[in-house]
């Protein structure tokens, strides 16, 4: 029998900190876990876990806010695989290189990150969490928000069920930016999105 997962995904803005706490607990009471696709503050990650009492899996974006706020309870998957609740999840942090700060990568550097996980990828991947998007999918044709070419190859070769990313800001947090490449669902989770996955 297949298992259904309900996942709260967030990125880029701390929008849920504006929600009434009881309303928030009620709205997300039946989620299985939380994913952050980057560029939210460490304090926000702490707030989400404290309020909803759920695990959070995250990658860093090209910005890390309130770095001094400890979040050792959170599962950082920058550049690595995680097996969690029957799911195989790969994390790929950061953005294209533009100012030589942390969590910024050239195409070659990101390809190396992927290749370090090639054996795990061959064994199967259910979810990829990245900050940047694949090249030509939801990205913007300028250096900071350009996607990575290697991500498209991961989709073609390994066919994850779900790919979530942030980085590209939408006109509001309710806007939907979603694309399917064969059976892979690619979702920009700017603000927050409540997603379901069956395995």
From TrEMBL:
InterPro entries in alphabetical order: Calcineurin-like_PHP, Metallo-depent_PP-like
The Calcineurin-like phosphoesterase domain, residue ranges: 6-169
UniProt-listed Pfam families: Metallophos (PF00149)
SUPFAM superfamilies named in the record: Metallo-dependent phosphatases (SSF56300)
Any GO molecular function: hydrolase activity
Leader sequence segment: none
Top-level lineage group: Bacteria
Protein name from the UniProt record: Calcineurin-like phosphoesterase domain-containing protein
